[in-house]
Amino acid sequence: DVSVRTAHRAVFTHAGQVYFAASKIFVHSTLHVAFVSKSVELAKTRIVGDPFNSTTKHGP
Q1: Is residue 18 a part of any domain in this protein?
Q2: Domain count, the chain
């Protein structure tokens, strides 16, 4: 869980406005399915929308 949250921070920090995002995430093959599953669940919770809305987590 910690690794998935950390990876998401590395990918989504600054919403792509700064050259900072991780472009590759290496995961051991024995953890791959669980990591991807948890990562997809977490990504679905991100609120994309108007950057001036306080509930938005990721602007367009």
Answers
A1: yes
A2: 1
